[in-house]
């Protein structure tokens, strides 16, 4: 399979038509080999427009949802990023092309090691993958300009939001009442605001980010 052509077609058909106009993001998506971050049996599906489950509780978002979420957090070249739930490391590789440094957090030690190995192979030298609980973040490495949650959540990630710098942005897919939307939380002093940016296709909630179960009387 010609993966280079597939990446170009992905950008032309799934990214540009969905209002992701930042040329830096387009270039990163066209350059980073998405297939390298998938098991061998899934690599032929790397550029299909649907979620791909590559490990228990870990999925690649559709290219459209992922690209729009990256654009929504407005990455800048001098930003420090926390990539929560980095999984295979694909989101880390894209964010590293757009920012100064990425701290990638993953609770699964095996995935963590594999992600770092793949990032090294694709020449991503400004990212470090560490083992930790994604919903707890990595406050000792912050504060961050961007916190990027690579997947779906059902509740506000308050602990991660508190690790943002003043003016920092947190991007995630928030699912409520059966509807998923790409959202951005912004910090202003000690206050946080949330903006819904786009309707998303993703449905599977990341482990640890499920809504808290209430009491039923």
Q: What's the helix count?
A: 6
Beta content: 25-35%
How many domains make up the coordinates?
Answer: 1
- What overall geometry do the principal axes of the alpha carbons give? globular
By helix and strand content, what is the structural category?
A: alpha/beta
Q: How many strands appear in the DSSP assignment?
A: 9
Itemize the secondary structure elements and their pairings.
Blueprint: H1 3-15, H2 23-31, E1 52-55, E2 58-60, H3 63-72, E3 80-84, H4 90-98, E4 101-106, H5 109-121, E5 127-131, E6 144-153, H6 158-161, E7 164-176, E8 179-188, E9 191-199
Parallel strand pairs: 3-4, 3-6, 4-5, 6-7
Antiparallel strand pairs: 1-2, 7-8, 8-9
Helix pairs in contact: 1-2, 2-4
Please provide a written account of the structure:
With 217 residues, the chain is of the alpha/beta class. It has a single domain (3-199), classed as Rossmann fold. The protein has helices spanning 3-15, 23-31, 63-72, 90-98, 109-121, 158-161; strands spanning 52-55, 58-60, 80-84, 101-106, 127-131, 144-153, 164-176, 179-188, 191-199. Strand 3 (80-84), helix 4 (90-98) and strand 4 form a beta-alpha-beta unit. Helix 2 crosses helix 4 (90-98).
Labels describing this entry:
alpha/beta; 217 residues; Rossmann fold; 27% helix
Kindly summarize this structure in a few lines.
The radius of gyration is 16 Å and the shape is globular. It has helices at residues 3-15, 23-31, 63-72, 90-98, 109-121, 158-161; strands at residues 52-55, 58-60, 80-84, 101-106, 127-131, 144-153, 164-176, 179-188, 191-199.
């Amino acid at each position: 399979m010609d993966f280079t052509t597939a990446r170009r077609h992905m950008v032309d058909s799934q990214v540009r038509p969905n209002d992701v106009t930042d040329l830096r993001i387009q270039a990163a998506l066209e350059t980073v080999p998405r297939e390298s971050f998938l098991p061998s049996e899934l690599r032929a599906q790397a550029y299909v427009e649907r979620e791909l489950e590559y490990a228990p509780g870990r999925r690649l978002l559709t290219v459209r949802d992922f690209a729009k979420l990256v654009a929504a957090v407005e990455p800048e070249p001098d930003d420090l990023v926390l990539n929560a739930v980095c999984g295979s490391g694909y989101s880390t590789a894209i964010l590293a092309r757009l920012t100064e440094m990425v701290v990638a957090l993953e609770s699964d030690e095996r995935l963590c090691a594999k992600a770092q190995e793949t990032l090294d192979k694709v020449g991503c030298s400004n990212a470090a993958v560490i083992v930790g609980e994604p919903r707890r973040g990595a406050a000792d490495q912050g504060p961050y300009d961007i916190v990027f949650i690579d997947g779906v959540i059902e509740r506000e990630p308050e602990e991660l939001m508190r690790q943002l710098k003043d003016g920092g942005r947190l991007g995630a897919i928030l699912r409520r009442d059966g509807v998923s939307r790409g959202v951005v939380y912004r910090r202003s002093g000690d206050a946080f605001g949330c903006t819904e940016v786009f309707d998303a296709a993703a449905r599977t909630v990341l482990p640890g980010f499920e809504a808290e179960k209430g009491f039923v009387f």
